[in-house]
């Protein structure tokens, strides 16, 4: 069973930069997995941030960016703001109509 | 602006079948570049992909559900549905429907681009 790994939690200072990662329990994440990233605040449905590794969804500020770094997909938030405090999920497309979510990273801005 | 709305019973008894419907408004469910999915989230936990369907009726499911899930589509009503049988307390969750965009600008993309607000289902006697 494929496991998509994310840091359970992360902390960043206001104005700082944070890089969240998305890996595989076995193997490397590549663009062929079409990594996407979602932000979820309590009580809300997820919001799409990034798709196809590095394409920002409509209306997403450019302080959010995605890339592949080493063997993982990463989401970088530059100039973190208080309202970036959320849960962040990455999703990988495994092919054959199967997507797998990472466990999510709880980001604290303080 | 496409919107998705989940509906269905909020309480299901153990061993029975959970049934939910997602109504798509503002766009056609038959557009080939979109597929349609169900995702769930137990309280305080992460998101789990359940499965997807496209307008032709072809489906794929998360193997972890051990064939308990069935997704169907009604293009005449612009709706798709989820049935999950033999439910237990572990199936208690917030259930989302989401649109999967398969391609954009002629390139594959494979991501959830529109989400419903979610509906809570509790499994309890």
What does this structure look like?
- The complex is a heterodimer of chains A (110) and B (125).
- Chain A is globular and about 40 Å long.
- Helices cover 0% and strands 52% of the residues of chain A.
- With 110 residues, chain A is an all-beta fold.
- Chain A is built from no helices and 11 strands.
- Chain A has strands at residues 4-5, 9-12, 17-24, 36-40, 47-51, 55-56, 64-69, 72-78, 87-95, 98-101, 105-109.
- By secondary structure, chain B is mainly beta.
- Chain B has strands spanning 3-7, 11-12, 18-25, 34-41, 48-53, 59-61, 69-74, 79-84, 93-104, 107-115, 119-123.
- In chain B, the strands form 2 sheets. In chain B, strands 2, 4, 5, 6, 9, 10 and 11 form a 7-stranded mixed beta sheet that branches. A 4-stranded antiparallel beta sheet of chain B has the order 1-3-8-7, with no helix packed on it.
- In chain B, a hairpin with a 6-residue loop joins strand 4 (34-41) and strand 5 (48-53).
- The radius of gyration of chain B is 14 Å and the shape is globular.
- Chain B starts with a strand and ends with a strand.
- Chains A and B meet through strand 4, strand 5, strand 9 and strand 10 of A and strand 4, strand 5, strand 9 and strand 10 of B.
Strand content of chain A: over 45%
Q: What is the average per-residue confidence, as pLDDT of chain A, rounded to a whole number?
A: 97
The quaternary organization reads as heterodimer
What's the order of the H and E elements of chain A?
EEEEEEEEEEE
Order of helices and strands of chain B: EEEEEEEEEEE
Largest sheet of chain A: 7 strands, mixed
Shape of chain A: globular
Report strand % of chain B: over 45%
DSSP helical segment count of chain A: 0
The termini of chain A sit apart by 36 Å
Low-confidence residue ranges of chain A: none
The shape of chain B, in one word, is globular
How many strand units of chain B? 11
Give start-end ranges of low-pLDDT stretches of chain B. Answer: none
Portion of residues in helices of chain B? under 10%
Q: What is the alpha-carbon Rg of chain A in Å?
A: 13 Å
Radius of gyration of chain B: 14 Å
- Overall pLDDT of chain B: 96
